[in-house]
Design a protein that fits this description.
Strand order of the largest sheet: 3-2-1-4-5
Largest sheet: 5 strands, parallel
Strand content: 15-25%
Distance between the termini: 18 Å
């Protein structure tokens, strides 16, 4: 089964990427993998405290994920899986794509900020020609109605 890979983070545009991935998966019989990445700099604290921070970060991610997962299950009949990785975002996204051959599309949300679409899109678009899968970039300011119309 083909899967959509979508990145869960604290950005506002993440919401539209999640919606798009779930709606497309629902309409095409695909799955959704939600990837959340804990950056390594969150653990560069005193010895012994890193594990506490790591566990707290995982708990925050799981709570955040469950909000999206409930909507996906209830509204789109899609049961997403959560993957949590630790490291730098771009290498971890690429590693997830490499390790899971069922992933067919990476879905990212574009920021509406005047600073550009966001660091992930900037970094991954430079590598787009060599990626093993396509990237779908979802504008962060699309309405629910527009998302439903295009999926």
């Amino acid at each position: 089964m083909r899967k959509f890979l979508v990145v869960l983070d604290d950005s506002r545009e993440c919401l539209n990427a999640m919606r798009y991935a779930a709606m497309r998966a629902s309409k095409t019989g695909a799955g959704v993998t939600v990837l959340s990445i804990i950056p390594p700099d969150e653990f560069n604290h005193w010895i012994g405290v890193g594990e506490i921070f790591r566990e707290e970060a995982r708990e925050r991610i799981e709570v955040h994920f469950e909000v999206f997962a409930k909507w996906m299950r209830d509204r789109q009949n899609v049961n997403p899986e959560l993957v949590i990785r630790e490291g730098e975002p771009v290498p971890e996204i690429l590693a997830q794509i490499t390790e899971d051959p069922a992933i067919g599309v990476l879905v990212l949300g574009a920021s509406t900020d005047n600073k550009g679409p966001g660091p992930l899109i900037n970094a991954l678009s430079r590598q787009a020609g060599t990626l093993p899968i396509p990237i779908t970039i979802v504008p962060g300011d699309l309405s629910k109605e527009k998302l439903e119309a295009i999926t």
